[in-house]
Each structure stands twice: as structure tokens, then as C-alpha cells.
Amino acid sequence: MRFTSITAATVLFTAAVAFAAPPRPKITGVSHLAIYASDPAATGVYFTHVIGAEKVADPENPHGARYMINPTQFVEVLPLPAGEGVNRLSHVGYKTDNAEAMRAYLAAKGYKTPTKVLRGSDGSKWFAVHDPEGNEVEFVQTPAHPAAVHAPKLVGHHIIHVGYMVHDRAKEDTFYRALLDFRPYWYGGMKDDHVDWVSEQTPESHDWIEYMMTGKPTDVGITPDITQSHLGVIDHVAIGVPSVETVFQTLKSEDRLTGKHDDAPKMGRDGKMQLNLYSPELTRIEMMNFSPTEKPCCSPFTAPNPSPSE
């Protein structure tokens, strides 16, 4: 009888825990980076001409536009709100297989969430929360049948990471690592003994977020010494390609290297070739090889690299 009672109590306890904390839905990669522009038309020309993306209407915001990299990944350009100062980052977005289940999961874990998900004109569903440092993060359930992308001059077809300013790595890890199960990928810095970048992969894909470590853990928001140019380097999107050198030569030969950009591809501290391009308002678009060709500094890779087939 005692064994039976214990077993019954265990079942009831397990059921209560399961009810209180539903399983985490899948997070299947980066959805998008959303940026502000004081001149959305000029920024749009940049993304269609230099990056080669297809411009489509924004299902979330009639005042914005999406520049499609593939059917489920894009850069979203929104009009610059009054009072933003040097900031050009609106939010980052991650793909999930079930937006409502993700909202319920976060709510059950005690995280502040909206009361419902929103629905876009394309059939997508999404909601937004704020990470521990106040950055807006969207979770997007893509349409069941996303539209094909018609962009023959795209420089690359896969957003492999997004990056933005982080002051307190441990605080951000309470959200990305502890709550969402992001996993370590790589960390490094300009010097071997200093951490400037921390990469955490999404749990069900090889895409990642890059913490761009800035200032002190006690700093809050954008400190007064940060310029728009500096912030544009920090808040960025990366497009994976098999060969950065090939992309560079193509852009040169087609006279598409307009605005600020690196003079040539260079080797990153992670052992991957990269080429930095900048939108008219100085948001960085990083072209990056999928895999390293040299040994990375500072730490080894601890998860698989993305690949062209993803």
C-alpha cells in the first residue's frame, strides 16, 4: 500500500509539474533582424542593389518593408521613430514551430509575456518579449507555405547569426541559456585574454546570437560615448556563404560595392573569412564563410557549424 501511495503521489506531482511548465517549443533558427532607418527608401535600395534581396510588403507593419534572404529569413526596415538618437536596432527575431506554445511556455516559467500572439497578413504568428537587458525579441511562427523568393543576385541565402550589444553576459544567459536552451558555440576577443564576443546557438539549428560585449555589466542601455557608427558595428546581421572571396569579387565586378565596406575580405578571429558591408545608416551586414579555414583564437567551436544545405 505504501508503494502504491508513493507511486500515486509521484504521478500527481509529475502531472502538476507538467501542467505548470509545458515543454519548450522548438527554436529553429534566426528569423530576422529589424532595423530603423531615417531614410527607408535609401536603405531599401541598398538591400536590393548591394545585398540583392527581394523587397516585399511587411505583414507585421504596413509602414515597414522586408528584404528577403530566403522564404523564412529577412531584414526588416522600419521608419526611425522620434527620439531614437543613435539607435538603429528595433528587434531580433527567432523562428519557432509554435508561437502560442512558446508564449505559454515563457509565461509558465514566470516570464512577462503578452496576453496573445499576433497574426500577420501572410499567415505568420508572432509575439515579442524583452530580454534581461531590455532588448526586444520576437518569436515567429512562419506561414505554413511561405512565398518563394525571387532574387537572382542575392549575395547569400542564409542568415547564420544576429548580434547586438550586451553588457552583462551572465544576465543574458538566464534568458538564452537557462530558459531557452541556447548552447555554447564559440567565444573570443581582439586579444586572446579578453572576451569581446560570445556566440550561443539556437537549440534546434546551427544559427546563433552573438553577444557583442560592451562596457561594464552595470551599464544600462546605450551609453553616451557610443556613436551611431560604433553601434552599427555592434548591432549586425551575418549572412553565411561558401566563399566570401567569391562574393567580394562578384560585388566588385558588378559595381555593387557602394557605401562603407571593407577594402577586401579578412580573416576573423574565429578562423572564418569575413567581409563587412554597411547600410546607409551604418548597420553592419557581415558576409561570413560557413566554416573556419584557420584555427580560432581563444576557444574551440563546441557545436557544429552551419552549412549551405540548411
Label this structure with key terms:
310 residues; alpha+beta; 2,3-Dihydroxybiphenyl 1,2-Dioxygenase, domain 1; 2 domains; eight-stranded mixed sheet; 16 strands; 31% strand; disordered N terminus
- Number of alpha- plus pi-helical segments: 6
What is the total number of structural domains?
2
Q: Low-confidence runs (pLDDT<50, min 5 residues)?
A: 1-18
Order of helices and strands: HEHEEEEHEEEEHEEEHEHEEE
Terminal residue distance: 55 Å
- Strand count: 16
What does this entry look like structurally?
With 310 residues, the chain is α+β, with helices and mostly antiparallel strands. The protein folds into 2 domains: 27-141, 2,3-Dihydroxybiphenyl 1,2-Dioxygenase, domain 1; 159-289, Roll (2,3-Dihydroxybiphenyl 1,2-Dioxygenase, domain 1). It is 21% helix and 31% strand. It has 6 helices and 16 strands. It has helices spanning 2-20, 40-49, 99-108, 169-176, 228-234, 244-253, and strands at residues 27-37, 54-57, 65-70, 73-79, 89-96, 118-119, 125-130, 136-141, 159-166, 183-188, 197-201, 208-213, 236-241, 266-267, 273-278, 284-289. The strands form 2 sheets. The chain has an 8-stranded mixed beta sheet, with helices on one face. Strands 10-11-12-9-13-16-15-14 form an 8-stranded mixed beta sheet. The radius of gyration is 21 Å and the shape is globular. Mean pLDDT is 93; it is low at 1-18.
